[in-house]
Design a protein that fits this description.
The protein is α+β, with helices and mostly antiparallel strands and 459 residues long. It contains 13 helices and 21 strands. It has helices spanning 2-18, 43-62, 90-104, 113-125, 182-189, 198-207, 213-218, 251-254, 305-318, 338-349, 368-379, 441-445, 450-457, and strands at residues 71-78, 82-89, 133-135, 140-142, 145-151, 154-161, 173-177, 180-181, 229-234, 240-245, 247-249, 279-284, 289-294, 324-328, 356-361, 384-387, 395-398, 404-405, 412-414, 418-421, 435-436. The strands form 7 sheets. Strands 12-13-14-15-16-21 form a 6-stranded mixed beta sheet, with helices on both faces. A 4-stranded antiparallel beta sheet has the order 8-7-9-10. β12 (279-284) and β13 form a beta hairpin. α2 (43-62) packs antiparallel against α3 (90-104) and α9 packs parallel to α10. The protein is globular, with a radius of gyration of 27 Å. Residues 1-23, 73-87 and 263-275 have low confidence and may be disordered.
């Protein structure tokens, strides 16, 4: 009996000696930093963990929708892949954000710095708010850019910049990248895009995303961000060609020879990589029309927006034959100086001689340009919005602050803090034109601005 008791006692002691010391459980982030316990101990991972928490806390403290009990319209990713549009409770948006933060933190040791950066970009993009973004440093691109064209219910992405040796493929349609069909490419890229409707997504894809090697690699479209990518293009005769492009510098996009880039000489706009004034106007005497172009709401070094509109109104009074004003807000992503000049513009548009006002918008119109277009329509009932639906709708959260930086990585980001609701009674996800006019490929090839010509012919 004593032997049995001794054996039992010995076994109990051995079991106690083999038991692992208890480790305090990780307390996931709940929006209260004082209750958080760190997951990682090594310096690299802990530095990244601090950045993730810094970013998350900034949104918890300052993003107004996290404090709202309302429901708003969002364009968001389903399980990080497909996209949909619909209403989402702001409380659910906050809970989803916290869940994404807590899913990312344990994975930091498994991810490269680049992968973590893009995960943070995806985290912020999950809010579906174009004003809240994280800005990865982009140093390498493919020497190819696209312009979207609406054909029936489809959108075609046509080449408008590519290396000179492929100049015969100008305006060819993008079919696939590295053998992955364009539709699937778009589906994989969407979670990285902070957009509020399908038109904003189109704008980002054409102007930024489809030429970024690192993003395409992390989205599973490329095997490597340093090797050539295969862009399959289809010409007008239906023939398909594959172009193999290596990553190059951003500056190389602006160095493409004129014979292999689109020269779009119109009143409207020039390529995003070319220098252009923030705003300007021109009196077209032969057409009894005044044209106002605002590329962005930012002051010039020698002239403010208010001063420009004052000069514009004075010019209109001196040209009494001018009966139409066209205000072009296409590719205008917004800015910080909208209200400083708007009253003067409104006065000019209400001059007795002005019979027709046309405001041009497209998928690249965001933020203050959407506000200006909407306000002109409200103030001048006969004003006509013309072009393509805008990249933003009736509700968004604007910004008044400069971008911030994460403490360890130095990544730049912005938290939107100013909610703006243009139409509470009848909210819309995209500001729609009164007259939808899609630019045509044939006009584009010939340097003709389809939308501007329609505005000049109106009335």
């Amino acid at each position: 009996m004593k032997r049995i008791f001794a054996l039992v006692l010995l076994l109990a002691l051995l079991l106690c000696g083999c038991r692992q010391p208890e480790v305090s459980a990780w307390q996931p982030y709940n929006g209260k930093p004082e209750e958080y316990t760190y997951f990682h101990e090594t310096k690299r991972e802990k530095d990244w963990e601090e950045d993730v928490l810094h970013l998350a806390q900034d949104f918890m403290d300052n993003y107004p929708l996290f404090q709202s009990g309302k429901s708003h319209m969002y364009y968001y990713a389903i399980q990080g892949l497909g996209t949909t549009i619909g209403y989402l409770e702001d409380r659910q948006l906050r809970e989803d954000f916290l869940a994404r933060v807590n899913a990312l933190i344990p994975k930091l040791a498994e991810l490269t710095d680049t992968q973590i950066t893009l995960e943070l970009q995806k985290l912020v993009a999950s809010l579906g708010d174009v004003h809240s973004q994280l800005y990865p440093e982009i140093t390498r691109v493919f020497q190819i850019l696209f312009e979207p064209f609406f054909v029936g219910q489809d959108v075609e992405y046509r080449v408008v910049v590519l290396p000179v040796q492929y100049k015969d493929l100008m305006y060819a349609k993008l079919i696939s990248i590295n053998g992955i069909a364009l539709e699937e490419v778009i589906r994989r890229l969407t979670p990285y895009v902070p957009v509020e409707n399908e038109y904003g997504l189109i704008s980002y894809l054409a102007e930024e995303l489809l030429c970024q090697p690192i993003l395409l690699k992390e989205a599973g479209i490329l095997q490597s961000a340093t090797e050539k990518a295969a862009f399959e293009l289809e010409t007008e005769d239906g023939e398909r060609h594959t172009v193999f492009l290596p990553p190059t510098t951003i500056q190389a996009l602006g160095d493409v020879p004129t014979e292999s880039r689109s020269i779009y000489n119109t009143y409207a706009f020039s390529f995003q990589y070319w220098d252009e004034e923030n705003f300007w106007y021109e009196i077209l005497e032969e057409e009894n029309t005044a044209f106002v172009r605002i590329n962005r709401f930012a002051e010039e070094w020698d002239e403010t927006l208010k001063q420009m509109f004052e000069s514009f109104m004075a010019d209109l009074r001196q040209h009494e034959q001018i009966t139409k004003v066209i205000v072009d807000l296409r590719r205008n992503s917004g800015g910080m100086t909208f209200m400083t000049g708007y009253p003067r513009l409104l006065q000019a548009l209400k001059l007795p001689q002005i019979e027709n006002v046309c405001v041009l918008i497209d998928q690249g119109s965001f933020s203050q340009s959407v506000v200006m277009a909407y306000e002109i329509k409200q103030e001048i009932g006969t004003a006509v919005l013309m072009g393509v639906p805008a990249g933003e709708g009736s509700f968004f959260v604007g910004v008044r602050n400069d971008p911030s930086k994460l403490p360890d990585s130095g990544l730049t980001y912005r938290v939107a803090t100013v909610p703006l609701d243009l139409n509470r009674e009848e909210p819309f996800d995209a500001l729609m034109p009164d007259m939808i006019v899609y630019p045509t490929l044939e006009d584009y090839k010939n340097g003709i601005d389809t939308v501007l010509e329609a505005a000049k012919a109106y009335g």
